[in-house]
Specification:
The structure is a homodimer of 452-residue chains. Chain A is an alpha+beta fold and 452 residues long. In chain A, 37% of the residues lie in helices and 21% in strands. In chain A, the strands form 4 sheets. A 7-stranded antiparallel β-sheet of chain A has the order 15-12-14-13-17-18-16, with helices on both faces. A 5-stranded antiparallel β-sheet of chain A has the order 5-6-10-8-9. At the A-B interface, strand 9, helix 8, strand 11, helix 9 and helix 11 of A face strand 9, helix 8, strand 11, helix 9 and helix 11 of B. Chains A, B: Belongs to the FAD-binding oxidoreductase/transferase type 4 family.
Chain lengths: 452, 452
């Protein structure tokens, strides 16, 4: 293809490849969505490289799909119209680090773990993103978050400035290096979460936080998900700056115990983490314990040693991946977010739907945010199982939207949540589509994601 | 004028007026910008009323300028192209209050104080906005903030959902009632801070916070603004969730003492507030005191009684308005925001510029955010004084942008900061203007604000 020859000509063979293994690696993410091979993979090293690629793509009307670590869960990196996969692995540098301003500027391909290692020498950490590793660019593009969002907010809340390149090669900064601004339209928040459909992000300036001196984890159980939700509400209503607060239902606790050899009480559970100066944490744990016991919690267990902390949060992470290794089985993952008061309804509905269907499933939630995940297991060889799993997932999403929530709390829309965009956004969707048209009139930037 | 007859016909005389006193009241805000009378003032009571007004305005190509409390500081509510002033005083209701979700939905005309009174029965408060009173709609439109932003973030961070009406009458919600979402483009942040130029906001859903049980105020002095900034950085680096942290330079302390009868030490000062559960606050104050004394602070004074608290924060508020009553004099207000590390440079530059000019001036800053205000006094009757005051203000803004900051931290662009939009936003300004064109093709919504 002529445009690929042009790419080789302008960028050289080190930054362009059509190797089968690379095409395969860039054909999919961690989701259940079908793989599609790109025609070519580019590895830009600078904004200028990206401008060259976009000029060629624009001239030949070729799709450009950004690729970070391939860890996404809704198919955002799958090049469904083939064309160019834009891999940021060589744009992974720290460009500017200002510890005194608690601020860092990075290229989008840097992994969260690499960033945190770099800045930890100064007692700082980056508080956004999921619990597993991912690129900062991918987290920005999907407005990712995770267990710590209850304290620090989502990815969008961590970003001070972006440098972006539009489809026509035009480049600009969306913000400044100041902590806040009331100047002009907030394009930073427009690009954060736009999944590569409006422009290519080339630099990201992030707020940082200080690493807490000390932390304590705790765990307790309640008779019902309702009581778990009320307990979580009371933690927030009492102004405790909880670091993490997770709901895991009794069936999912059983799965953790069985798969990972734990012996947690098989009841609806809250996993908690408190972090800060030692004496402050001690006060917070005391207050939280009182709140929980006043509501009738059982099995309260708090610990500050590293082994207990590791055990607790590893169990939580293991739940999220507990089904991944079951041979021959596939899973469909859910990610709705609802007002906390509606979470018990969602949990009950989900658990009974899964139980009645006969399919195996786990559920857990970032309860302080009302964000709630499911993992439903199906055998693709058994007729109707995939459809059944999808039906349950659809019903959960529809219920979430009905009670005032959203189809995705942190994974993004990608391919999997496109069908819910009309019911969630209504007339706003038209303005989103017209915004897409304004920024990318030829429709070359990650086409077919968020909307068709 | 024909369109005014149509307004009377469709809305009735109770919702439309051309009374001189009302035209005058809607001709200006608290800024130094020249008053312009609208042709007519409308008082809509519902979204439907607003749609009627916009249909008429659209048909006759008449400017529509939203008006909240008139408390703005950059001329946003001044109807510079005359036409319709859209006053929200009759759209001031609480529409939905969910204490268990720490969430409230209001109409834009409600005052912050009214909202806080309503929700305080449930132990909750709205943490956004300036320290003086304003409408929630106005605060949303300008992305306002104030002393508590260092802990709770700016207005944009408080908003879960907006209902908006576009110039053509199309209406939609920008978000959901969930605490977070990764679905679609974040139109909420686009409208927050757009100063009524993209659409009319008709409903606002806000996050709430719990009222802290207890608080302690403290005050201390340092030899230089640099030391104040380092002290503030160390408070943040130690993870203390400080409620307020204000810098007031020595000259401004002198003004407070003289104008308001206080006896604060005439030195560069930090005013602080800690808030939370009693024991936690005590730990935070202990840690902060150590941090300050390690840096050589003097005059450390902490108190938890209500008289001391009132005295301290009243003095801070008095500084902001200390020049307002000086007969025959006018003031020009500044509002830049820079990385904290750059604040000492700005403070020194500003103080020496004011001193060398011979003009009276005060300066104070939300030091935790790097947001920094000035109030420069001039006599409009004295030749050249206004120009001199404006020159100093311009030089401060240019320096702020040069060191990576913004021309406005919380007041918005309005009329006063239009001239800095090119140097601050560069090529991004073109996309902002094209966004304006997309949302308001006839240019009837608050024309001439942010950009021409």
């Amino acid at each position: 293809m002529l445009y690929i020859e042009k790419l080789y000509e302008k960028l050289g063979t080190e930054k362009v490849t059509q190797q089968e293994t690379e095409l395969k690696r860039h054909s999919k993410d961690e989701s259940m969505h079908d793989a599609v091979y790109p025609d070519v993979v580019c590895f830009p090293e600078s904004k200028e490289d990206i401008q060259i690629i976009l000029h060629i793509a624009s001239e030949y009307q070729i799709a450009v799909t950004p690729f970070g670590a391939g860890s996404g869960l809704e198919g955002q990196v799958i090049p469904i119209q083939k064309g160019i996969s834009l891999d940021f692995q060589n744009m992974n540098k720290v460009l500017d680090f200002s510890p005194e301003d608690m601020r860092v500027t990075v290229q989008p391909g840097i992994m969260k773990s690499e960033l945190n290692q770099f800045i930890s020498q100064q007692g700082l950490f980056f508080a956004g993103g999921p619990d597993y590793d991912a690129t900062i660019g991918g987290m920005t593009a999907t407005n990712a978050s995770g267990t710590r969002a209850v304290r620090y907010g989502v990815m969008r809340d961590q970003i001070l400035d972006l440098e972006v390149v539009l489809a026509d090669g035009m480049s600009f900064h969306t913000g400044t290096k100041a902590k806040k601004s009331s100047s002009g339209y907030h394009l930073t928040s427009l690009f954060a979460g736009s999944e590569g459909t409006l422009g290519i992000i080339t630099e990201i300036t992030l707020k940082l936080h200080s690493i807490p001196d000390y932390s304590t984890v705790a765990r307790c159980t309640f008779e019902t998900p309702e009581l778990c939700a009320i307990a979580a509400q009371n933690i927030l209503l009492n102004g405790i700056p909880i670091m993490r607060m997770e709901l895991i239902d009794s069936v999912s606790i059983g799965i953790i115990n069985k798969q990972c050899g734990h012996d947690f009480p098989v009841k609806h559970s809250l996993f908690l983490e408190f972090a800060g100066p030692k004496n402050t944490v001690a006060e917070e744990v005391k207050l939280a314990s009182k709140i929980m016991h006043d509501l009738g919690c059982e099995n309260w267990d708090a610990a500050s040693d590293s082994i207990s902390k590791k055990k607790l949060w590893e169990a939580r992470v293991q739940l999220a991946v507990s089904f991944q290794d079951l041979k021959g089985m596939k899973e469909i993952g859910g990610d709705v977010c609802v007002p906390i008061s509606q979470l018990p309804k969602l949990v009950s509905f989900t658990r009974s739907s899964m139980d009645e269907s006969g399919l195996k499933g786990a559920l857990w939630g970032h309860i302080g945010d009302g964000n709630f995940h499911t993992s439903i297991l199906y055998n693709p060889e058994v007729n109707g199982e995939q459809e059944l799993a999808e039906q349950i997932n659809d019903a959960i999403v529809n219920l979430a939207i009905e009670v005032g929530g959203t189809c995705t709390g942190e994974h993004g829309v990608g391919l999997g949540k496109k069908k819910f965009q009309v019911s969630e956004h209504g007339a706003a969707l038209e303005m989103m589509q017209r915004t897409k048209q304004l920024y990318d009139p030829k429709g070359i930037l990650n086409p077919g994601k968020i909307f068709s």
